[in-house]
Amino acid sequence: MACARPNGAPREITVCTSLPLSGRAHDAGEQMRRGYERAVAEVNRAGGLRWRGSGGVLPVSLQVRNDEGHPAQVEAATEAFMAGGCDLLLGTASPVRMAVQVSVAERLHRPLFLDVHDSPGFPLSRARWTVPVTAEGDLEARAHAVASAALRVLRTARRTDASVLRDTARQILSAPAD
Fold it and tell me: Which of 55, 56, 165, 171 is the most buried (most CB within 10 A)?
């Protein structure tokens, strides 16, 4: 996960997600992984993210764990990411697994970016730490859009303080809350 420099500034920005990369939903997981990887690669090809206190730009890394489509593994992976220094969490496609991610993000007060099309019926207006993004296209394109929006928030905020990320997302992203 995020490694710190001697002055306390991170060496990289870590974006995390758990996806079903095996099991019945593996096709959806692979599509989302490709979309997320493409967004991170685009930022890194452009030189990374300019960062407060780093003395320059930082690369972005994407950490993906296979949850095999099981909600209990989603919960364990999300908690492990947060405990390990994940700077930002990206959602999964299944409403059941996403509900688990939302629950953990809300409990741990860490931003979770997700596609509103993959979260039908969620009362997102009541979720303080969940950032809905409106994305179009196939699953890979929507994942790319969600990751790109999250990275735009990071670029604008230039820090990983959870409340700053949440507030910055509210300012620059326009997505319906429910």
Answer: 165
Average pLDDT over every residue of 47-63: 81
What are the CA-CA distances from residue 155 to residues 15, 42, 51, 59, 98 (Å)? 13, 13, 8, 11, 25
Whether 87 is covered by a domain: the verdict is yes
> Domain with 56 in it: what CATH number?
3.40.50.2300
CA 159 to chain centre: 15
Nearest to 143, CA basis, from 86, 98, 83, 103: 98
* H helix or E strand, kind and range, residue 145: helix 139-157
The neighbouring-strand residues paired with 65 are 18
In DSSP terms, 13 is beta-bridged to 60
Strand partners, 90: 113
CA distance linking residue 19 with residue 162, whole number of Å: 22
Tokens, residue 139: 């699953």
For residue range 116-167, list pLDDT tens digits in order.
877 666 655 667 788 888 889 999 999 999 999 999 988 888 777 788 888 8
**Helical (H) or strand (E) element with 74:** helix 71-83
CA 135: distance to chain centroid?
Answer: 14
Q: What's the whole-number mean pLDDT along residues 27-49?
A: 95
Structure tokens at 27: 């096709």
Look at residue 4 and tell me if it is in a domain. no
Return the closest-CA partner of residue 32 out of 118, 105, 103, 99. 118
